[in-house]
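Milestone M4 deliverable, item 7.
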Amino acid sequence: GIALVDNCGPGMNMKGEMVINGLQIGNIWITVQPLLGVEGDPMRLLFERDLTPHPQYTAAYEWMRLPEEKGGFGTDAVIHLGMHGTVEWLPGQPLGNDRQSWSDELLGGTPNVYVYAANNPSESILAKRRGYGTLVSYNVPPYGRAGLYLELANLKDLVNEYRSGEDSRSDLRDAIWGSCERAGITADVPCNFSVENSEGELDLSAVKVEDFDAWVANLSNYLVTLEERLFSSGLHTLGGQPTDKELLSYLNAYFDDKLSVDELEEVIALSHETHKSTESSNSFLSWLQSFADNFMGDNSGDSATQTSDDEQLKDEALKIVELLKRNTEEMDGVVTALNGGYVKPCPGGDLLRDGTSVLPTGRNIHALDPYRMPSEGAWARGQRAAEEILRQHQESNNGAFPETIAVTLWGLDTIKTRGEAIAIVLALVGARPVKEGTGRTVNFELVPLEELGRPRVDVLASLSGIFRDSFANVVDLLDDMFERCSIAEESPDMNYIKKHCLDLEATGTERPAARLFSNPPGDYGSMVNEVVGNGDWDETESLGEIWRGRNTYAYGRSEGGGGVRSGTARPEVLDKLLSTTERVVQEIDSVEYGLTDIQEYYSNTGALKKAAENRKQLDPATGAKKKVAVSIIEAFGGSDDKVPVKDVEDVLRMEYRSKFLNPKWRDAMLEQGSGGAYEVSQRMTAMVGWAATAEVDNFVFDQAAERYALDEEVAKRLQKNNPEAFKNVVRRLLEANGRGMWSTDDETIEKLRQLYSDADDLVEQVASSFG
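Output delivered:
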């Protein structure tokens, strides 16, 4: 027999037997992927190289693979449904599995059909490389406009009344200001006048008309931006053809104001008429025409037969509708893969940024050529983003340049933006890409200081594990650039890389020019989200130290010969960079996943911010350590001419208002049953993570409690859909109050405690009903 020792992991019954839960329907076994790690620390396996998958995890895969005569299920193929699972993240080689790689050991030669989100080509690479996955993409959910609701709708009416009236405008001042305070908008639209009299009471009577009018104009612009902001509405059904309403939401988001709603509805109506018996023939002719256009280029010129702009847009809209209707090919792709057929390839990405090239879904998605980054468009946007980052920093720091800026380099946004974040790093340092005749990037050359016209800003590049593994060529080029910066014949006052390297050399530190930091070789993640998820932390400073402990490894050409196995722990260099970091830069690559939607943003960007703040001196004026700013770039917004750069607190408030606190978004999630409740629960956990590493306004917690816990009808639906998710929602609100993140009255806390007690009882009842 086998003696099971402590820490044997989850998945065991009271008799010490391994349990594999699931539902068998004919020759199909439906199960949930086993929990990963050890009890109370579910992701520990990912971060400790001496651990192995626990016995029940390995037994589940072994049972699936073993033939029936040997007591297994005898599976011919496995379908991993939905990104992302855990088997491809298990310890082993980052590139080129061997028999010491657990993903190879568990999956072996079993065909792995991996149903993956079309807009995540980054992590899908890992599913292919380490999980041997044949990918079948699925579409993103329909888009919705945030609109205005409750107090925000009232505020819009007040603003419109104020701006359209003449006689009674002064009477509306107090009402507008009061509505702004209730909605928490005064921080987003600050005023340049005093709103209080000498006794500290609200008094707007002395404010000049032109000053108040200018502020109201800014307020109106903010409300318009908020009202038109996009979000993912609900969840996607695999293989489901979108309804006309959903088609309209996709088109409205894609074309914005270029086509009216009436015109878009006409296109959708026309699409119903075009599906004739000749569809397959037309499809081939359409493909042939598209191929010819791409091959020959657009030589239409200004001929008299050229269609109008509107007609071209309508043609494009019709093409998008036809492609979206082919969502049914998602299921076809799964069946084709199971039949051993050829699943057609397609680039990964999202419709809004990447256009129709990412459609139809149901395809085996791929990324891009890493040797051609940054692209021309990414280089143009990256330069403008860097200029705006520096402008904003100087504006808030009496004209001073930052000595060090931390830039996060992630695989997903790098792929989708074609390397914008890389371009930002280059522009901050004062370098530019050099490409050979084939278009491949071969070097990052330094721009002469005379041409640059400012100091070279030092950069701490924080690499995700996927970026480190997928873009080793870029890592090596960046490392070479920093090495050349460190020895350039320039004054340290105009070259902060050299300045900091000289400081480190004076203390005997090796490789002071190391600037590319990530997790240990073959490991992934900061572990901060696991700690926040478990609630196993005390002071917020500890979250920064967890991030720091997981990111001390430097990579590049000068680290053991280059490549993803070349990481060397250099904590002294990292600490120096963190101590001089004054700003963190993070790109958001899509509408679907913002700062508040997933755990990775606060656990990396937020925790990096905290790690830098931990190393700051106390500010004599405040008695606290100096704050580190975070610049957010929404890569799906702006243009080559202007790239919006926003403070993290502004983006958090905008996202919370447009999505999580928005009844429209909430109701869409409630319609999705257990999955929708889970999404709500995850965002509540992320809210606590952001409150721990940055700042979340009190009104956000107030309204979250009102929308999801204290609204009796909503609470009942959440609890019915997913008792565990509702319990977590209430738990996070109580945790936020207990940790001093949220201030509310005793009555509210008592209600939440009772709700939590009831939810806990219900979860236990559900668990006991399954034995």
